[in-house]
Design a protein that fits this description.
Layout lengths: L2 E3 L1 H6 L1 H10 L7 E4 L3 E8 L5 E6 L13 H6 L2 E6 L8 E2 L10 H14 L5 E5 L2 H12 L4 E6 L17 H6 L1 H6 L2 H22 L5 H8 L7 H12 L10 H8 L8 E4 L7 H14 L5
Parallel strand pairs: 1-9, 4-5, 4-7, 7-8, 8-9
Antiparallel strand pairs: 2-3, 3-5, 3-6
Keywords: Hydrolase
Protein name: Alpha/beta fold hydrolase
GO molecular function: hydrolase activity
Length: about 290
């Protein structure tokens, strides 16, 4: 059973979150990995022979969401890999004919493909929002590749039908953009106002909003596939898109995946707001997980 860290923890750690957000400036150079479908841009830190932790960002953020997590994990002996998800930043599709989809099975396979490209047999998976779904999907598709899993409670839900159940009004309000993007007007709005929408979400979700950090991250949304991948993934998540036929078998496997004995944490706060929770959870996964290599 996943151990839970909820949003109240972030509220108790506002000061730590602010300091970490403002003080960390990423200095790790961008690297690239080629998979069958993608040219993936990623950042990395730590000893390349150390136990790996893959950190996966959500919407509307990028690799800088983990600025306060990455160096601390590296300092504690982890090899940290932080990729730009498909449709974000420098990550590109090789072939114009490849469907621009963002559903969980495709995202999960991207994680496994990246690990294969980097010759990483197993790792701790950690992510939030889209990244949490990618982490959970990768763990379900290839359970032996995941030593520990960290994701928000909702992102760990295997049965997508459960996500169509109404949540408390405050929770629904916090995720207003989901309902907007389920409409064609929302898709057009994201295409026209992607920075303004992202800025609103940041101001709503982050303990401390930082203009400079936002401006650096906002370039990620200029990826030509950002709109298509983001909208299809969200609509599939909530049942408004049937999903791509090529992903049907993998999606069923995710939905039917049995419980696994790996360490797991459900963290319902962003890494920018409570980096310590994410660092602590990843370190516990590293220590308690059953490594085969």
């Amino acid at each position: 059973m996943a151990r839970r860290v909820d949003r109240q923890r972030a509220d108790r750690h506002h000061t730590a979150g602010r300091g970490a957000l403002m003080s960390v400036n990423p200095t790790h150079p961008l690297r690239r990995a080629r998979t069958d479908l993608l040219d993936i841009g990623y950042l990395t830190a730590g000893d390349e022979t150390a136990r790996p932790v893959v950190l996966l960002h959500g919407f509307p953020y990028d690799v800088r969401a983990f600025d306060a997590v990455t160096p601390r994990l590296a300092a504690q002996g982890a090899r940290v890999i932080v990729p730009y998800l498909r449709g974000h930043g420098p990550t590109r599709f090789h072939d114009a004919a490849t469907p621009r989809i963002g559903e969980r099975a495709a995202l999960g396979q991207d994680v496994i493909d990246l690990m294969d490209a980097l010759h990483i047999p197993e790792a701790v998976f950690a992510g939030f929002d889209t990244g949490g779904r990618a982490a959970s999907a990768a763990a379900a598709l290839r359970p032996t590749r995941c030593v520990g899993l960290i994701a928000a409670s909702e992102d760990r839900v295997a049965d997508r039908a459960a996500l169509r159940e109404p949540q408390p009004p405050r929770t629904e309000w916090d995720h207003w953009y989901r309902f907007y993007l389920l409409t064609e007007r929302g898709r057009a709005g994201l295409a026209r106002h992607r920075r303004a929408i992202a800025r609103m979400v940041w101001r709503d979700q982050l303990v401390q909003y930082d203009d400079d950090l936002f401006d650096r991250s906002a370039r990620t949304f200029d990826n030509r596939d950002f709109i298509a991948v983001t909208v299809q993934g969200l609509r599939h998540q909530f049942g408004d898109d049937a999903g791509h036929a090529d992903q049907a078998d993998a999606d069923r496997k995710i939905a039917q995946a049995p419980a696994h004995g790996r360490p797991a944490f459900a963290i319902d706060t962003l890494p920018q707001n409570d980096p310590s929770a994410w660092v602590e959870a990843a370190l516990q996964c590293m220590r308690q997980g059953k490594w085969r290599t």
